[in-house]
Amino acid sequence: MSLHVVIGFGPAGAATARLLAEKGHSVRVVTQSGRSPEPGIEHVALDATDSKRLIDVAQGAAAIYGCAAPLYHRWASEWPPLATSVCSAAEATGAVLVMLGNLDGYGPVDGPMTEELPLAAVGPKGRVRAAVWEQARELHEQGRIKAVEVRASDFFGPGVTDGGHLAAWVMPRLLRGKPVSTLGDPDAPHSWSYLLDVARALAEVADEERAWGRAWHVPTGPALSTREMVDRLAAQSETGPVAVRRLPPAVLGVASVFSPLIRELKEIRYQFDRPFVVDTSAYEAEFAVRATPVDEQVKATVNWWRERLATKASDERFPDATGVHHPK
């Protein structure tokens, strides 16, 4: 089987690397800090903006997966050098560049989002995400690289913690039967991309030459509001109905003073104040991956979070003999 290089080991990078390893590929993961090896996966400590070293690490790769992202409040300054380095590695090695994208580049739209919409974001983070793809697309059209982008909505599922709206903000409180707070209108329809489906789509398009040169939306289940998703998650967890409260703008304003992340979220508030629905029919008409049924998504997510919180509680109660805690 072939070598695949995954840049980044957040939820999407980790899920993609492990899926590729399960398929029998050799997988090399690039992160700044590195990690201990795991079955089928080699971890390399490397700043991915160092194009010379990245090219060396990616020699012989069939595909490079761009799954890394700067901290949200640093997107405008740190995305361009990262994207340029990854494109340079794809050009130097001939590997297919498979980019993980999101929907921010479209900006506010009326109706379901399709891949044919213009990238018309007006905020700086939406503009930089659009520019990252446009750079790769232009290089592809010039014949210098082979590139494809897979765009996902908000992640959730096993493995998604801090970066998901249904993760750190919802699951720990929901499993304790406590009310949860949400950005925007909790009853607005919203598309949620299941993490495993994101990884499966990334792996699939890498092998499909007819997918290259354009963007595709990850197969995603029917749009459900935050309240509907919380109701399903609560029912699965058997914690009983959980109240869903909209965070008042004044609370967000105060929190933004202390949190760069919350301060930057104002750019994408429209995604939660109004319907935010993705159309994935183009992908489904061409390729095999389909969205995991919502009931399966919910069950797996609740089980994973329940185990995660139980393990964390156990570690806090029983540190090792040195007194050092070892969270999983």
Which regions are unreliable across 5 or more consecutive residues at pLDDT < 50? 318-328
What is the helix/strand order?
EHEEHEHEHEEHEEHEHEHHHHH
Instruction: Characterize the largest beta sheet: strand count, sense, and whether it forms a barrel.
Output: 7 strands, parallel
Strand portion: 5-15%
CATH superfamily of the domain at 3-155 and 193-220 and 277-292: NAD(P)-binding Rossmann-like Domain
How is this structure best described in words?
By secondary structure, the protein is α/β, with parallel strands linked by helices. The protein has a domain at 3-155 and 193-220 and 277-292: 3-Layer(aba) Sandwich (Rossmann fold), CATH 3.40.50. 41% of the residues lie in helices and 15% in strands. The chain has twelve helices and eleven strands. It has helices at 11-22, 51-58, 75-93, 124-141, 171-174, 195-206, 226-237, 249-258, 260-264, 270-273, 281-286, 294-317, and strands at residues 3-7, 26-31, 41-45, 61-66, 96-101, 146-151, 154-156, 180-182, 192-194, 215-217, 244-246. The chain has a seven-stranded parallel beta sheet, sandwiched between helices. The two termini are 31 Å apart.
